[in-house]
Amino acid sequence: MKALTANRLIDGDVVFWKSGQWVEGFGDADLFDDPEAAEAAEGQAKSQPTVVIDPYLIDLMESDGLWAPLSYRERIRALGPTNHPTHGKQAVGGDVVEALLHADGAARSSGRVNLIKRK
């Protein structure tokens, strides 16, 4: 399963592909289980007038019946910016954020950032 993501040029926020347009919520994103459909959506996104930076596909995993990005980096991106106290999708709450926060599985590290889960 995959989803298509990018960063919006106007403000840098993370956005996700849904039905030919960019939306802010990961929970609203189109999920692709067919590699050809995912690549077609990526091609469509890249051919649009430039409103995002470098669209790309991310791998997803299932967590308690909900979908979340496989990598920690993508989970952090999906939760939204955390550098402003009033700005961030984690404030919305709900099942999508719950899946993103509690998904376990393969942790991928670039070697530049170490992420430690604290209880």
Chain-wise SSE layout:
Blueprint lengths: L1 E7 L5 E5 L2 E3 L11 H13 L4 E12 L2 E4 L2 H8 L14 H9 L17
Antiparallel strand pairs: 1-2, 1-4, 2-3, 4-5
What would the principal axes of the Cα set say about the shape?
globular
Tally of DSSP helical segments: 3
Oligomer: single chain
DSSP summary, beta strand count: 5
SSE succession? EEEHEEHH
The percent range for strand residues is 25-35%
Keywords summarizing the entry:
alpha+beta; 26% strand; 3 helices; single chain; disordered C terminus; 119 residues; five-stranded antiparallel beta sheet; 5 strands
Describe the structure.
The protein is an alpha+beta fold. The protein is built from 3 helices and 5 strands. A hairpin with a 2-residue loop joins strand 4 (52-63) and strand 5 (66-69). The longest helix is centred in the middle third of the chain and has 13 residues, at 35-47. The protein is globular and about 35 Å long. Residues 83-87 and 105-119 have low confidence and may be disordered.
